[in-house]
Amino acid sequence: MSRLGTLGARLYRGEVGYDFVGKRKIWYGISILITITAIVGLAVRGLNMGIEFSGGAVFTTPKTSVSASEARHVAESASGGHTAVVQELGRGGLRIQISELGTKEALPVQEKLAKELDVQTSKIDTQLVGPSWGEEIASKAWQGLAIFMVLVVIYLAIAFEWRMAAAALIALIHDLTITVGVYALVGFEVTPGTVIGLLTILGYSLYDTVVVFDGLKEASKDLTKQTRFTYSEIANRSLNSTLVRSINTTVVALLPVGALLFIGGGALGAGMLNDISLALFVGLAAGAYSSIFIATPLVADLKERDPQMKALAKRVRAKRAAEAAKADAGTGQASEDPDPSAAEDGDQPTPAAAGAGQRRQPASRGRGRGRPSGKRR
């Protein structure tokens, strides 16, 4: 068995473990710092909305010798200063996207692009997206996200309990905020593919969270009938038992997504992969983090406020204090109890004999008792 497999087995059996729940204030602080950074980036830089949301025009050119940077300069000059996004296509053509460009402005831009790129005007394919259609797409995206959240909360509340549903919802909002903040800081374009990626990562995040919650639900059955562990300790044991599984699942999912982002979008220049692959990559990492460091500690925090769990924690502390006092008393009594046989001889007991208690008499001392003296009559 590999070292990781051995570690996973030991974590599952509770032989080793890390106190994730006990150090939850550290994780809360880190999450708050990351979330604030994401919100500041979103407020300062904003999102680079694609034409599907903001409206605009897309010009697709045939094969040309003009570079992407030159085409971007020409497009921005022809559109009167509007920002242009240029992508190189596999067949040697260019895809030029200009946001917030009206129908009347699109034709002059098309003619100037044809002139500068030395192609016929009819060879340039032009697609226009109105702002009203973009607003409708954005509205439907928000509706889909809201419906997803509501269904998730209802399901978790029925399958588990409302505390777990609340913790899972907070973890999902945490993942969405971080992903959107990274989009704002990096400046990648937000497209319908981005929305698909966001919905996908919510499913991955919930998968890890539900796995931990299911183990916690089984481990916490009849919890109040024992006095060995508190709810937080049981939650920490459940989290450690599924830790390696969560890490393996996340790593396996991140490898192909990372290939799409860094190789497909970065090295090969397939910019259309960036929108969905970045959302998946950041969201998967944030989802794995939140399921381990946020969701379960939040459940423990909420559950420990329950009167039954407070009473259980009080009983556990009382039992441990009594056991500690008993152990201390037993150690002290053993160290103060002298050896009777040594006291009879007038010698002081040695440290080893003091801890051993009363010794047994040798069997040879009882020999000959009740026998004749051996004298012949």
TrEMBL record:
Cite the residue spans of the region called Disordered: 322-377
Question: What organism does this protein naturally occur in?
Answer: Streptomyces sparsogenes DSM 40356
Its Gene Ontology biological processes?
Answer: intracellular protein transmembrane transport; protein targeting; protein transport by the Sec complex
> Which parts form a coiled-coil structure per UniProt?
none
How does the record describe its quaternary structure? Forms a complex with SecD. Part of the essential Sec protein translocation apparatus which comprises SecA, SecYEG and auxiliary proteins SecDF. Other proteins may also be involved.
Gene field: secF
UniProt-listed InterPro entries: SecD/SecF_arch_bac, SecD/SecF_bac, SecD/SecF_CS, SecD_SecF_C, SecD_SecF_C_bact, SecF_bac
Q: Where is the composition biased (Acidic residues)?
A: 336-347
Could you tell me what this protein is called?
Protein-export membrane protein SecF
- Subcellular location(s) of the protein: Cell membrane
> Which keywords accompany this UniProt record?
Cell membrane, Membrane, Protein transport, Translocation, Transmembrane, Transmembrane helix, Transport
Renumbered to this chain, the Low complexity biased-composition regions fall at 352-365
Per the entry, what this protein does is:
Part of the Sec protein translocase complex. Interacts with the SecYEG preprotein conducting channel. SecDF uses the proton motive force (PMF) to complete protein translocation after the ATP-dependent function of SecA.
Hey, which family's this protein in?
A: Belongs to the SecD/SecF family. SecF subfamily.
**Protein export membrane protein SecD/SecF C-terminal domain segment(s):** 111-304
- Membrane topology listed for this record: Multi-pass membrane protein
**UniProt entry tagged with the keyword GTP-binding:** no
What Gene Ontology molecular function terms does this protein carry?
protein-transporting ATPase activity
List the HAMAP family hit by this protein, alphabetically.
SecF_B (MF_01464_B)
Where, by residue number, does the polypeptide cross the bilayer? Answer: 26-44, 141-160, 167-188, 194-216, 247-270, 276-300
Listed Basic residues bias regions: 366-377
The reply on keyword Protein transport is: yes
Q: Taxonomic classification, please?
A: Bacteria, Bacillati, Actinomycetota, Actinomycetes, Kitasatosporales
